[in-house]
Prior knowledge:
- The chain has eight helices and eleven strands.
- The strands form three sheets. A five-stranded parallel beta sheet has the order 2-1-3-4-5, sandwiched between helices. The chain has a four-stranded antiparallel beta sheet with strand order 6-7-8-9, covered by helices on one side. A two-stranded antiparallel ribbon has the order 10-11.
- Helix 4 links the parallel strand 4 and strand 5 (about 95-100).
- The protein is an alpha/beta fold and about 220 residues long.
- The protein has helices spanning about 10-20, 35-40, 60-70, 85-90, 105-115, 150-165, 170-180, 190-200; strands at about 1-5, 25-30, 45-50, 75-80, 95-100, 125-130, 130-135, 140-145, 145, 210, 215.
- The radius of gyration is 18 Å and the shape is elongated.
- The chain folds into two domains: about 1-115, Rossmann fold; about 125-215, Winged helix-like DNA-binding domain superfamily/Winged helix DNA-binding domain (Arc Repressor Mutant, subunit A, Orthogonal Bundle), CATH 1.10.10.
- Helix 2 (about 35-40) runs parallel beside helix 3 and helix 6 packs across helix 8 (about 190-200).
- Member of the two-component regulatory system CutS/CutR, involved in the regulation of copper metabolism. CutR suppresses a defective melC1 gene, encoding a putative copper-transfer gene, probably by altering copper metabolism.
Amino acid sequence: MRVLVVEDEQLLADAVATGLRREAMAVDVVYDGAGALERVEVNDYDVVVLDRDLPLVHGDDVCRRIVELGMPTRVLMLTASGDVSDRVEGLELGADDYLPKPFAFSELTARVRALGRRTTVALPPVLERAGIKLDPNRREVFRDEQEIQLAPKEFAVLEVLMRSEGAVVSAEQLLEKAWDENTDPFTNVVRVTVMTLRRKLGEPPVIVTVPGSGYRI
């Protein structure tokens, strides 16, 4: 899942990003509304965690722009105000969910995952394919009832492949969904991660390489 965190409190923004990355999400961070507009017009995000009171460009205007672009991106709006009128106003702007500060990180994570599921065709909370069972919320993977321990990027790549439901996913798409914008697009990190993932998932192999196209399960 690709997430953009937009928050002018840099310590909070970085802490949220670090926590989401530990949950196997690819996270970009900006600290003002102008930076947010630049990112959403260039990158495809599943979810934007958007502080409402931002410098340079207000969070409301960022939210409006996301709606105008007609993107499937979902917006989780953050604010220091918990007033009902503020929540209603934020939702009327086009936000998909609303979370007042201070918040529990576990709730933020759950809401981001729930919104991420809404950017694609509805799928069950636990994904199953080719003998693999993946639970994004619990961060658990099983093959034939045996648990498999995966690193965050390995988990992220497997989740993208599972969600594609048999369709071929290119290396570029995996790079976009499982890594942040600071990753070198010419790196071989996708190939290396897929190799390691194949080894951990065991025999017979479930990840198929489609020459010149990408990977599928």
